[in-house]
């Protein structure tokens, strides 16, 4: 949908803002509201507290006291939420000591102010500082921020319009997010079923002897990973210093490189031949399964389907080379199913830092169909997961486009690039969108 423009414009005098409607004003933030910070600390949060407690993240905590009872816009003063986390609230609340509070609005509606600063502040500050991130906000940086100021009645119309339109876009985004979750669940269910029950629904079944695995096809075997593969990882390795990486050479994979649908050979580090040859047992070959064995990424898995150049891995990744009775792609899908999650939970037990040792991996029980059947299962799952992954990618791209439209619409409305005054009747009332 295209939107009309205002009848006439003037130069705002602000380079990044450009022209604004002729009857609008432009002023600095400090003239429009009171700027202050909270006085509480993170440890003051109370799980069942009576009042909202605004901290430096998008999550609103609870607290047992309040320091303000007013309409306010709040934003993180430092940390990862700088320029990204904004709240609009009216009532009793408390705020963290590094959260900025904007209140006592003058000549500007709180909702209009919220939409304006939420969409424009970070982009403008980044341009002004030539930084990809902003670590903290200083009061002068905030106080001097330029804001367009339409007449109050017009601000209310713009805010009402945006509440309605963004509610529609948010509903569409939520639908796409729900679709992604459903596709993820379906993907997991298809993999888990096929790698444990096979492709023939009429195949006679038998008890696997493993409680969490249940029944498997009667002609399948149950074996241990150590009997069917060579499992290894770097041992006694001193690691690499940053200056030891080279611009071009041998690929050195880390856990982030194996987290996706396929191994990322583009965003990698390179090492020289000497460091590559230090651990010949970790030199990769096609068909190897790579498994993250440490920390929060424990259980992340991928399979080497091709090698664009000689490649090795760091000490956080276990390398599993199947023998002739085991397909690497079948093993990859077996790990992707609920199998790995169940196994990790049993192995990990009460360990403080999650870690899988080589001895643990060797003990893993695995269902073992005949090799040709493993290949058929792998081919079937390649086809099915590709279809599901394509649908997921389309849904994610749809969300990106909707988010871009949402941002562009808000930015255009609050800076006067479009005239929405005649469209307010189609928007959801402000109180219904809150």
UniProtKB/TrEMBL annotation:
Gene3D superfamilies given in the database record: Bipartite methylase S protein, DNA methylase specificity domains
Keywords annotated in UniProt: DNA-binding, Endonuclease, Hydrolase, Nuclease, Restriction system
Taxonomy, superkingdom: Bacteria
InterPro entries in the record: Restrct_endonuc_typeI_TRD, Restrct_endonuc_typeI_TRD_sf, Type-I_RS_S_subunit
Pfam family, one: Methylase_S
Coiled-coil regions listed: none
Domain Type I restriction modification DNA specificity: 21-181, 279-397
Molecular-function GO terms, alphabetical: endonuclease activity
Family, per entry: Belongs to the type-I restriction system S methylase family.
Name recorded for this polypeptide: Restriction endonuclease subunit S
Organism from which the protein derives: Methylomonas rivi
């Amino acid at each position: 949908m295209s939107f009309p423009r205002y009848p006439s414009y003037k130069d705002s005098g602000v380079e990044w803002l450009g022209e604004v409607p002729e009857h609008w004003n432009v002023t600095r933030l400090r003239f429009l509201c009171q700027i202050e910070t909270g006085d509480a600390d993170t440890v003051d949060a109370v799980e069942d507290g009576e009042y909202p407690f605004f901290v430096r993240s998008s999550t609103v905590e609870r607290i047992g006291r309040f320091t303000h009872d007013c309409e306010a816009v709040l934003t993180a003063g430092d940390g990862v939420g700088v320029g990204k986390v904004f709240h609009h609230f009216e009532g009793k609340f408390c705020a963290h000591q590094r959260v900025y509070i904007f209140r006592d609005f003058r000549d500007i509606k709180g909702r209009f102010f919220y939409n304006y600063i939420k969409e424009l502040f970070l982009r403008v500050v980044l341009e002004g500082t030539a930084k990809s991130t902003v670590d903290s906000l200083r009061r002068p940086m905030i106080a001097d921020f330029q804001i367009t100021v339409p007449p109050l009645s017009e601000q209310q119309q713009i805010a009402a319009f945006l509440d309605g339109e963004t509610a529609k876009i948010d509903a569409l985004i939520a639908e796409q997010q729900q679709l992604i979750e459903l596709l993820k669940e379906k993907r997991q269910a298809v993999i888990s079923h096929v790698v444990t029950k096979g492709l023939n629904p009429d195949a006679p079944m038998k008890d696997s002897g493993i409680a969490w695995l249940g029944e498997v096809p009667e002609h399948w075997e149950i074996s241990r990973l150590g009997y069917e593969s060579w499992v290894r990882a770097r041992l006694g390795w001193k690691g690499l210093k940053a200056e030891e990486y080279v611009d071009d050479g041998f690929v050195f994979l880390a856990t982030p490189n194996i987290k996706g649908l396929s191994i990322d050979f583009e965003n990698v580090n390179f090492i020289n031949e000497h460091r590559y040859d230090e651990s010949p047992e970790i030199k990769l070959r096609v068909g190897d399964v790579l498994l993250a064995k440490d920390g929060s990424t424990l259980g992340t898995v991928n399979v080497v389907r091709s090698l664009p150049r000689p490649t090795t891995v760091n000490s956080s990744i276990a390398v599993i080379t199947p023998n002739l009775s085991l397909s690497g792609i079948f093993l990859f899908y077996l790990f992707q199913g609920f199998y790995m999650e169940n196994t990790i939970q049993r192995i990990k037990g009460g360990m403080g830092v999650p870690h899988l040792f080589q001895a643990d991996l060797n003990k893993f029980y695995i269902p073992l169909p005949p090799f040709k059947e493993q290949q058929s299962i792998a081919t079937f799952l390649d086809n099915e997961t590709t279809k599901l992954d394509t649908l997921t990618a389309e849904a994610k791209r749809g969300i990106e486009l909707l988010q871009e439209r949402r941002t562009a619409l808000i930015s255009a409305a609050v800076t006067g690039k479009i005239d929405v005054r005649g469209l307010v009747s189609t928007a959801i009332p402000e109180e219904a969108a809150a």
